[in-house]
């Protein structure tokens, strides 16, 4: 089966460029932006040789997993574009809902969104999302929204639980998942509406939020802030109620849930 867009995504002017193997789908997408691509381009592959995650960390995409990047070329504020990571998380969660509906044993699986950019199933990491941007000569910018999903395999040597669709008992392949993703992205991006619908995205994201109301620790460089995960605010910042009862807003950091995870974070 070859990669393809959902019919409605195609009618909404999205385009597709698929590779058997690629260095980095994000890198290809930003190259296309510099070459004058107008955006709304999906770059996808089942194998990625030099993928990366947040803060330059490696993100392996062995053969059979999904590496998908959507290139958008826009002129609104980069602060607004940064919230597209929440649109991506929701879109993947919706696509997984459709996939899991085909596997009765996965009917009770809990799909959770971990701030700012991970998708979990029953507490184990299934997917990571990475946004990268580049300023273009005409004053606009290209933004690459990278989504990596463990479809047939997942790394074993991580300091946190990870999983794959295959390990969960799903027979879904990368092509089928991407087909569903291209459709759910179209719906959620329309809801987001260049940031004007961010409150609706935020509300939907919170319905799926992992760890909401529980103990959390966030590492920011050498500093760790602990407390209760209260919400994400109107700008999608992470909000903790600390031990003194103060609300602390966090724009970036590594999140750890629960008492044990909090201890590890320290």
Automatic annotation (TrEMBL):
Q: Is-annotated flag, keyword Nucleotide-binding?
A: yes
Q: Which reaction does it catalyse?
A: biotin + L-lysyl-[protein] + ATP = N(6)-biotinyl-L-lysyl-[protein] + AMP + diphosphate + H(+)
EC supergroup of this enzyme: ligase
| E.C. number(s) listed in UniProt | 6.3.4.15
Q: Which residues form the BPL/LPL catalytic domain?
A: 5-193
Q: Name one GO molecular function term.
A: ATP binding
Which keywords has UniProt assigned to this entry? ATP-binding, Biotin, Ligase, Nucleotide-binding
Taken from the UniProt entry, a GO cellular component term is: cytoplasm
Q: Does the keyword ATP-binding apply?
A: yes
**SUPFAM superfamilies (alphabetical):** C-terminal domain of transcriptional repressors, Class II aaRS and biotin synthetases
Q: Which domain of life is it from?
A: Bacteria
PANTHER family the record matches: BIOTIN PROTEIN LIGASE, BIOTIN--PROTEIN LIGASE
Which named protein is this?
Answer: biotin--[biotin carboxyl-carrier protein] ligase
Question: What species does this protein belong to?
Answer: Phyllobacterium salinisoli
């Amino acid at each position: 089966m070859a990669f393809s867009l959902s019919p409605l995504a195609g009618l909404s002017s999205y385009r597709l460029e698929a590779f058997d193997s690629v260095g980095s789908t994000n890198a290809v997408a930003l190259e296309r932006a510099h070459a004058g691509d107008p955006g709304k381009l999906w770059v996808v592959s089942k194998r990625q040789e030099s993928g990366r995650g947040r803060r330059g960390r490696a993100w392996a995409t062995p053969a059979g997993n999904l590496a998908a990047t959507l290139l958008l070329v826009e002129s609104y504020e980069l602060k607004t574009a940064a919230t597209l990571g929440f649109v991506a998380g929701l879109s993947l969660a919706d696509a997984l809902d459709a996939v899991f509906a085909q596997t009765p044993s996965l009917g009770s699986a809990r799909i959770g969104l971990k701030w700012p950019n991970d998708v979990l199933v029953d507490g184990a990491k299934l997917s990571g999302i990475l946004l990268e941007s580049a300023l273009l000569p005409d004053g606009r910018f290209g933004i690459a929204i990278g989504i990596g999903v463990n479809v047939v395999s997942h790394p074993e040597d991580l300091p946190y639980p990870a999983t794959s669709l295959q390990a969960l008992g799903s027979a879904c392949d990368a092509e089928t998942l991407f087909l569903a993703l291209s459709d759910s992205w179209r719906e959620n991006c329309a809801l987001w509406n260049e940031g004007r619908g961010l409150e609706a995205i935020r509300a939907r994201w919170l319905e799926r939020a992992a760890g909401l109301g529980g103990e959390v620790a966030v590492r920011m460089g050498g500093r760790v802030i602990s407390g209760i995960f209260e919400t994400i605010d109107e700008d999608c910042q992470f909000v903790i109620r600390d031990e003194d009862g103060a609300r602390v807003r966090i724009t970036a950091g590594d999140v750890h849930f629960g008492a044990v995870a909090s201890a590890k974070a320290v």
